[in-house]
Amino acid sequence: MKNDKTLLMNILAIVFLALLAYFIYAVATSSDVGINLMDDNVVENRVADRYLNKNVLDENSQYEWGGKAEDSAANIVTAVLADYRLFDTSLEVIVLFVTVMGFGLVLPDERRKIKESTQLLFNWLPILMTFMLLVGGYMFINGHLSPGGGFPAGAIISTAILVGILAGKQTVSHHTLKIVEAVAGISIFSLATLGFILKGSFFINFLEGGNIGDVFSAGLIPILYTLVAFKVSAELSGVYLEFYKGGEEHDHA
Amino acid sequence: MTMLNIFLLSSTSLIFIGLYGVLTRKNIVKILLSLNIIETGINLLLVAFGYVENGEVPILTSSESLKNIVNMVDPVPQALVLTSIVIGLGTTAFALGLTIRYYKTHGTLSIDASDEEEVMLNE
Prior knowledge:
- The complex is a heterodimer of chains A (about 250) and B (about 120).
- With about 250 residues, chain A is mainly α.
- Chain A has one domain (about 75-250).
- Chain A is about 60% helix and about 0% strand.
- Chain B has about 120 residues and is mainly α.
- Chain B has a single domain (about 5-50, about 70-120), classed as Helix Hairpins (Orthogonal Bundle), CATH 1.10.287.3510.
- Chain B has five helices and no strands.
- Chain B is elongated.
- Classes of the chains: A mainly alpha (about 250), B mainly alpha (about 120).
- The interface of A and B includes residues 56 and 88 of A.
C-alpha cells in the first residue's frame, strides 16, 4: 500500500513537472499578442516601459495628492513591495514558511517545559503584551502610509508571544498558530485568484477607491499586509514554541 | 567625502569583517554571526545604490512631495532589501536549528569535529 502511494506521488510529481515544462515552453514560443519571449523585442513593448515613461509632473497627469494615483499606496516602498512586485513578496512568504518548517524538522525532539518566571515579569506581562500588540497592529494597518508593514509587524507580534513564553505563560497553542497560518496563506492566494477571475490577471489590485494618504486606500495592499502580518507572526511564534512542550494540542496537531 | 562614499565604505568593510570571521572562526555560531554581518553589509550596499544626494524618504506626505518625486531615494532597492532581510531571518533560523542538531551529534560546536570520519562512524 505504501509503495503504491509513493509510486502515485512520483507519477504526480512527474506530471506536475511536465505540465510546468510545457507551460514554460508554450509561453516561450507562443505567437499570440503581447510579448513573446523568443522574439527580439523592442523596449516599447515591455511592461517596464510604461513605468519608466510615466510622467507624474505633467499637467494632464491624473496622479495627484489626495487623488486616486493608480490606487496605490502613499509609501512607495510598500507600493513596490505589495503591488508591483507582489509575486516576489508572496513567494518570499512561502520561503519563510519552508525554512521555518525545515527548522522544526531538523531540531532534535527534546522539548523543555515552560518555566515559571519572576513575579515581576509575570505581572507586567499583560501591559507589555498590550503595547507590543498595539505597535504591531498599528504597523500593519499603517503599512501603506508609513514605514513598516506586514513583515516587521509580524515580527513584533511574535515577540509579544515570546515575552509570554518567557513569563511562563503560553498564550497561543501550536494548533491555533497552524490554523492562523493556513487561513492567512490560503486567503492571500484566494485574493490573487479572485483578481484573476475579476480583472484577468493574477494578484491584480482589484479594489478601488480611497484617496492617497487615507487609511482606507490603496485597495488590496492593507488587506494583504494584514494577512502577511498574521502569517509571519504565526510562523515566527512557531519557531519559539518549537522549543517548548505545548500541552495536549501539540500531540495530534 | 560624500554620503554615498561613506555608505559604500562601511558596507564593504562590513562584508570583509564578516568574510574574515567566516574564514578564521572555528565556532559554528560565530560563523553564522559572521554570515549575518556579511548579509548586513550587502543590504547596506543595496540600499546605498538607491541613494540620492540630499534625497527624501519615498513616502508621499503632501501634494508638494509629489512635485519632489525626483528627489526621492530609489524605493526599489529598499523593497528588495526587505525581502532579503526576511529570507536572511529564515535561513539563519534554519542554520541555527542545524547547529543544535550538530551539537547533539558531535558534542561540540567546533567545525573540526566533522573533519574526522570516525566521529560519524563511532556514533
